[in-house]
Amino acid sequence: MATENKVRFGIIGFGNQGSMYAKFITDGMVPSMDLVAIADIDPAKLTQIEETYPQVQRFDDYKAIIDSGEVDAIITTVPHYLHPEIATYALSKGIHVLNEKPAGVYTKHVKALNEYAKTVDATYAIMFNQRNNPLYQKLKTILDNKEIGDIRRVNWIITTWWRPQAYYDQSAWRATWGGEGGGVLVNQAPHQLDLIQWLTGVPEKVVSRVQYGYQRDIAVEDQVHAIFEYENGATGVFVTSTNEIVGSDRLEIVGDAGKIIVDDSAVATIYRMKESETDINKNMDVDGVRKLMTGQLAFEELYDKEVIQEENVWGLQHSGVLENFAQHILNGTPLIADGQEGINGVRLANAIHLSSWTGEKVSIPEFDDDQYLDLLNQHITDEGKFDTRK
């Protein structure tokens, strides 16, 4: 279907993300794509598209753009609940899909999409642009190579999402259970929920303390504290919120043989131990303890230190995922993020919600999709603004 070594691309939803992707493509930042069509249900948006991109075909329904025969692939820049629905329909028509994050709102919906995607001959990918960040790619290699040993502790404080009340008031679906499916966990933090698992592995269990409408007049969460337990006994802490003007973005990963500290998703400091902590502990004698207690132990002699800083040019992460998606379709280039992996972040967000709703520790391998959906629908019913979900 793709012609002239380019993918004919369609954008479904012309909001902030959709309009950004349109500009990337038309500005030449995605050389293997032609933007040929955009769909939106808002007549005002269609007028804006006509004025800005007169050469692009316009549609007022997602099925119409998919059925048009004009596109090889689409991206879903629409409210989160629609991601699995639109992706499934597109895949059923042989159209390649780049799903915007998150893959969906609840695991049962995303699982159905994943299972269907395995049965069709079309590409299913997800827009995890942070996996295209050179800094995190280098850290992934360091961790996969066990350069800091087995992981013992993971902490991520990511509170740089300040949103005023006016942000939530601009759309009726925003910050609702029935319209958006949650707050900071499904809107702002999905990239970090994906990255923490991509880098350090999927946790075994989750327990959380979540505050709903804590500092904003909303029904969903605006502050989250979650504790993870890993199979090897390691622990993790994840903190996020939308009410801090002076926010923090700090990731710490501690291993038996080193430590990684990432500040502002821009600078990483790597400490590589010359001996593992286990060996140093085992081999330290009484004289070593004396030096430790009297401040004579030179800790800086125990490790090597490296600082990594990558230039983060705005737009290159997203446009890079778009180009990678196109190159996969055209030439079989491995995907940066296979769509099947989208369920990991959705399940972790669901588990954090579920733990806070039940007051219990939640198992990730044994996560109860039906229990979560039942409780989500109770929240939607209590909210009284939207239909429940299936």
Automatic annotation (TrEMBL):
GO terms for molecular function: nucleotide binding. Pfam families: GFO_IDH_MocA, GFO_IDH_MocA_C3. Residues 7-124 form the Gfo/Idh/MocA-like oxidoreductase N-terminal domain. It comes from the Bacteria. InterPro entries: Gfo/Idh/MocA-like_OxRdtase_N (IPR000683), Gfo/Idh/MocA_Oxidoreductase (IPR052515), GFO_IDH_MocA-like_dom (IPR055170), NAD(P)-bd_dom_sf (IPR036291). Residues 136-260 form the GFO/IDH/MocA-like oxidoreductase domain. SUPFAM superfamilies: Glyceraldehyde-3-phosphate dehydrogenase-like, C-terminal domain, NAD(P)-binding Rossmann-fold domains. Signal peptide: none annotated. PANTHER family: D-GLUCOSIDE 3-DEHYDROGENASE, UDP-N-ACETYL-2-AMINO-2-DEOXY-D-GLUCURONATE OXIDASE. This is Gfo/Idh/MocA family oxidoreductase.
